[in-house]
Amino acid sequence: MKEDGAIVIRFEGVNGSPVVSGICIRKAPKVSVPQVTHEYLKCNNCASMIEVPSAQKKLLETKSTMKYEKKIEELTMQCQRKTKECYEAWMSLTSANEQLDKVRMELDNVMFNTLSKDQTMEKQAENLRNISGRYEHDQIYWAAAINNLHEKIKVMKKEHLQLSCEAHDCVDSIPELNKMVFAVQTLVAQCEDLKVKYSEEQAKRKKLFNEFQEAKGNIRVFCRCRPLSKEEISAGSTKIVEFDAAKDGCLGILTGGSTKKSFKFDRVYTPNNDQVDVFEDASPMVTSVLDGYNVCIFAYGQTGTGKTFTMEGTEQNRGVNYRTLEHLFNIAKERSETFTYSIAVSVLEVYNEQIRDLLATSPTSKKLEIKQASEGFLHVPGIVEAKVDNIREVWSVLHAGSNARAVGSNNVNEHSSRSHCMLCIMVKAKNLVNGECTKSKLWLVDLAGSERLSKTDVQGERLKEAQNINRSLAALGDVISALATKSSHIPYRNSKLTHLLQDSLGGDSKTLMFVQISPSDKDLGETLSSLNFASRVRGIELGPAKKQLDTSELQKLKAMLEKARQESKSKDESLRKLEENLQNLESKAKGKDQSHKNLHEKIKELEGQIELKTAIHNQSEKQLWQLSERLKGREEVCSNLQQKVKELEMKLVEQRHSESASFQQKVKELENKLKEELQKSESYTVSLQHEVNELERKLKEQEQNSESCLLHQKIKELEDKLKVQEQQSQDCTDAVRATPKTFIRDELMNEIEPRILRSSNSINRPLSQGSTLQRGNDSFHEMRRKRDFRNADAENNIFVSSSLNDTKVSRKSDPPKIARVMRTTKLVTATQGPLMHKRTSRDYNQGIKERENKKKIWS
Ligand code: ADP
Ligand code: MG
């Protein structure tokens, strides 16, 4: 109502367009009594102002003030008491927390120990797994090795069996072998006997042959007459040589008119006889060389009568030299099983009583002299002895010799006729049967021309040559003659020729002389001279008177010869057979010996193999035993380890059980304590609430009382105190929550916090809400499950509760109340706050740090 009387209606908090349907205006009654000052009290419910007379109000107010002051004092006392109790409860809670911390620490330690044990156990389990893996691997490996060894042993056993079978066979075959050995031994004995017999026979054969040769004569003279040359025929020369009895070795020389001179030689060769015929008779002499006799074959005669032809021959028509060597090699080859021969050749020339080595590659000024090497054996030191193994080498040596001879003179024929060409073949033989060694030599001499000096009208050097030739030939004749007549003195040293031939002339040595003659009548004198010389050499003077005598003698000799030949033939035959038999026996004996040796070697080899195999077998068995021992040891170690692991597991389980049981026990005890504490505090708060409610009810009753405002203030103060208590309990919960080291403590504190909050909230709420305490009986596992959620939720609850309180404060908009609240807070903090804050903040931070540290260690 404005001053001008207008009524203004203002709608506040109304939506839309309100319509005023009617207004009731009541006129206030006029007060006639002395005006009593009224004061108004505002209704809390309807906000209507209730008029109270000031006097009454003052009385009421004093009375109620007195009452309320008393009540406030009582309540303050109670509050202080409760605060003390709360403080004690809080202290006990703190100690319980400390204990809880200790328990948690212990639990942590135990958990850490458990974890470390778990880790060690895992390590051990890993080790065990590794060991078992290795063991399995080893087991597989050793099993494979054992199998392999078993296989090897099987194979070895098989081989051993086979070898033993073979050994048995060998042992079985030993009697047969012994028989064979016995047979071989008898054969060897037979062979030895045969050898002895053979050598005896050979000796006999040699002796017989030698006797035969000797019967023929150690000095034999063969006469060879060349055919008339074309020149001689053209010159009208006539033949003066008769060969009617040539087969009997008789030769007739027509000396002129009807006179005829006969000569007798060992063999007479007509011009029709070729080189083969000549050598056929000379070959036994050659054979004597291989038997160890010295032999000397030389050709004597006038120049141009065919000495060189007979000795050397031509390439198409080889002479005695070549054929002799060929024959030597052939016989040596035939006798190669019983004899070994080494043949060496020297080619010399004696010219003017000087020896010249025709095989020397370089000419030497040194004179070659004849020396006595051993008894009955002469040697020319420094002479070349060319060793020849086959006939081709012989030919090259002979060719070299003849070439060297040609070098010495301008006219080959002339020179050759004035020097003696001497081919010496040295034979070393070894009898393989009896080991007998022989050394023999064969001289093949192409003598210089024997023509007489008187006929050669020469002077000076030529004369000297002729004299030397004549002297040497005469000396040769003298030596042979002396030998034939068995003279006591043999004049070997009269010439170089005879000196060189000393060991091959006389004694057992054989001498063969080819006396070469010309059939021409123009050479009659020389022919007769040569034939005379040859006859002298032969030691028989042949004449017409002696001819007969000679014939009867000859007949006798012939018969003897024939007989000897027959004998020698039959002996040769038997010898050949014996040799063949011997060879067969030797080859058989060799074969048997070889087989015997082979069998012995085989037996030895098999024995060695058996020994080796048994050694290997033993070794493998040893290895197997060692392996099985090792396996057993490993198995024992494994079982021990397994046992240890089981024991450790058992211990761990026991420890876990005991520790967890003790912890659970402790936790339960602590929970019970906490519950008791909470129940105490809540029962106290409930009683306080009751009192407050009662006070409120009384206040309502005494609404008229003037001191109701003060009462309200008191109530507010009480409410603040309660809030402080609530704050205190919240701080307690914070302190508990601030150390989230273990889940058990967190759970407990999270469980406590809402209860405190609920209890604090329950101040302004119906009492029935305090039934949340029943939740304290929630299971431990549920608390653990909700832990994290509640941690966050508790903080929100604190905030909400404080905000609720704030809204209350703000709604009342009572500044002094804030100051009071501040004061009470200070009062509380002065007594409990610093410790609380310090502890809560420190514990909280410490808890976070510890939790993080433990997380790191455990991870
Ligand atoms: P020497 O050596 O005695 O002086 P040779 O051997 O030089 O004599 O012979 C002289 C010649 O006579 C040569 O031409 C040779 O061929 C020939 N001659 C010698 N003997 C015979 C023979 N038995 N048959 C054929 N020709 C021969
Ligand atoms: Mg000649």
From TrEMBL:
PROSITE patterns: KINESIN_MOTOR_1, KINESIN_MOTOR_2. One of its GO terms (molecular function) is microtubule binding. Residues 848-859 have a biased composition (Basic and acidic residues). One of its GO terms (biological process) is microtubule-based movement. Residues 830-859 are annotated as: Disordered. SMART domains: KISc. Residues 146-218, 547-735 form a coiled coil. GO terms for cellular component: microtubule. ATP binds at residues 301-308. Keywords: ATP-binding, Coiled coil, Microtubule, Motor protein, Nucleotide-binding. It comes from the Eukaryota. InterPro entries: Kinesin-like_fam, Kinesin_motor_CS, Kinesin_motor_dom. Pfam families: Kinesin (PF00225). Residues 218-540 form the Kinesin motor domain. Belongs to the TRAFAC class myosin-kinesin ATPase superfamily. Kinesin family. KIN-14 subfamily. This is Kinesin-like protein. The lineage of its organism: Eukaryota, Viridiplantae, Streptophyta, Embryophyta, Tracheophyta.
